[in-house]
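User: Last request for today: this protein with tryptophan, please.
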Amino acid sequence: MTQRVLTGITTTGTPHLGNYVGAIRPAIAASRESGVESFFFLADYHALIKCDDPARIARSRLEIAATWLAAGLDPERVTFYRQSDIPETTELNWLLTCVTAKGQMNRAHAYKAAVDANGEASEDPDAGITMGLYCYPILMAADILLFNAHRVPVGRDQVQHIEMARDVAQRFNHLYGQGQELFVLPQAEVEDSVATLPGLDGRKMSKSYDNTVPLFDGGAKALKEAIARIVTDSRLPGEPKDPDSAHLVTIHDAFADEAARTAFHADLRAGLGWGEAKQRVVQLIEAHVGPMRERYAQLMARPEQIEDILQAGARKARAVAAPFLADLRHAVGLRPMVAVVPSKATKAAAKSEVPVFKQYREADGHFYFKLTAADGALLMQSRAFIEGREAGAWVKRFKTEGAVALDGAPVEVAAGVDSQQVEAALAMLVAAQE
Ligand code: TRP
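Assistant: Here's the final one, the structure of the complex with tryptophan:
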């Protein structure tokens, strides 16, 4: 079976080298594997939770879309779209909101961290916390469940959100699935083999540490300047250096093949100067990033082209999402109001499946009734009545009261029939009266 892989990218910043190595490059590589169907989207609704600067939101969506395309994402092969172009996401968000326990959202890391920070600042616990932040995991569950994704590649900080999506899916399946699995239970995928790239100062490369190397921004010049600022030890040219303790080497290795790595490490041990080493790193990354940067510039110069690609992606995504959402609406009871008129054929079929009571008089002059199954098999036989009316009264009672009337009734269950069969037959008869 093809595996659906889905991931979202929050559109708040400008991608840097760490985003490329840690997320973009592995995701594109994974999308080229056979047997996977990939969904990548710009989580621009999630971006609104973190950022209320419209210009920045607009800019970041464009930059991130252009980055993924320039890095080699093939929109023909994968489904690449904007979250905000899929109205089914917000509809599902509501259906899920109605089955999500508030207590579970209280335990979400991002919300708890915000409450804790307020506590430390002696603020009201909920100061500055929007319902968007509070319900962030539900929207994320909607993103994932709408496409029945099996695998969700994310950073470690997002694992709790995937677990919450599983929980919500399970609850929804239980409430509305009628024994069927409406939603696939998604699995978080944390790539441990992909190194998190260190930044200029050696800490994880992150915008919040202000230690990033730009991916495309500022061109080759900015790349060179950033790499020149990477902190190294103070060993001079000619002195042996330890490649394992230098984050410049980690950055180098993220772009080098095995042979280039070995050579670089050996040269450093043999005394290669940091200045020269940095030049080699610049050349290596530039060889990799340069051609992508050109494609990026072309794309950024023609945003309408990106818009068209994303619109086509939205159509592809909605072709999956819309029919599924229709099923989900039906499952929760949001259905068209049509009278359910059984056709003649179904009425006849239903009738022929119903057991029947028969009243009759034997040669002994007494009156009797019996219950037979739809196929004619005898289920229950009455004793003899002097009056036909008496037999008729019992039949009427059975048809209205069902198995309740069995207690003390002048009847015997037929040989080889168990009483549960009789009770079921009576229940069917009662239902058929209604
Ligand atoms: N919250 C994710 C992040 O910040 C982005 C995201 C939104 C996402 N919806 C998603 C990731 C669905 C995976 C699946 O990284």
